[in-house]
Sequence to fold (392 residues):
Amino acid sequence: MINYEKIKSEAAKQMRPSGIRKFFELASEIPDCISLGVGEPDFQTPWSIRESAIHSLEIGRTKYTSNAGLLPLRTEITNFVKRKYDLNYNPEDVLVTVGGSEAIDLAIRMLVEEGNEVIIPEPCYVSYEPITTLTGGVPVHIQCTEENEFRVTPEQVKEALTEKTKMLILSYPNNPTGAVLRHEDLVGIAEVLKDTNVIVLSDEIYAELCYGDEKYESIAHIEGMHDRTIVVNGFSKSFSMTGWRLGYAMGPKPLIETMTKIHQSCIMCSPTTSQYAGITALSSCDEEILKMKEEYDFRRKYCVRKLNEMGLHTFEPKGAFYVFPNITSSGMDSDTFCMELLKRKNVAIVPGSAFGESGEGFARISYAYSLSHLQTALGRIEDFLHEIKEEK
Ligand SMILES: Cc1ncc(COP(=O)(O)O)c(C=O)c1O
Fold:
């Protein structure tokens, strides 16, 4: 008999499993469960994007592409980021990946080795830490607070820096909080990193989903940061293309070249059909993106108002498609709150603790659901709050 536990690598065994998945496995066992848990757009991928994918298949574009991705797609990516965020890249600085997920994985694996520190402001998306530990890297967490609208400060970054720091991960607009860094935050962080060799991994997957006056600015746009930033972006969120598995990384050519080498060995190239679809998405779908964003914005305002009205203090998110209500007034920790809500009202939301220690006391609600779905679920949350109040 093989003892499988004995033969697995220690690093793989120690990887923290996703708290989101764990919760949804439980929710999937409950009949009539209504979920506000998944960070996946409810819209169909715009038709013109699907049509160009179908066309590419009809004319037989079914082979591998170059490892880095189709040149016309990489060219469109550079045009798009210039037009939207005033970022200057050449197609050689771009690697097309299997979702933003692969770009994150490659960037961390390309840079981080045993004992290197990776600064991860929290609460944040769940993949950075497990990939860091898989490489032997050491995650160094920064706790972002509601008082500071969940923005990491230059002072916090300075405090976390050591001789061993290899990378700082910035993930804004943030999942789960919806926080966005301001220009002065970015300038302050750039100042802190100025004389170091620390590389920023800037996960900008929600950059197109910024609301109100907030116009997205990438840290790569700040003086001195272009050469020390790897920007990760993708098609899943703003183009509603989660299942197409398409994303990209952009950065200094020597770093992108090494990431391409790893990608060549483990992936070969991103799905060809998706790459053709991506060209259409970037070049001719501004109107569709805007329409989806307007709908998210409407839901965002509805959720913030409704949650505050029912007594859950909710910070107004500036981007992405999540709200992050403070649930401490319930007297429960975030795991218990979400579990009780699931058991009593069949509503699934994600405990804030799944996104790091500083997420404790909060819960993540995704508003990538129709308004009627949101209304039903928030109505049940309100009933739940009444119920637990009466029990006290
Ligand atoms: C902050 C963040 N980064 C990256 C991803 C990965 O996206 P994908 O691999 O679909 O591009 C997600 C998905 O939820 C996310 O929330």
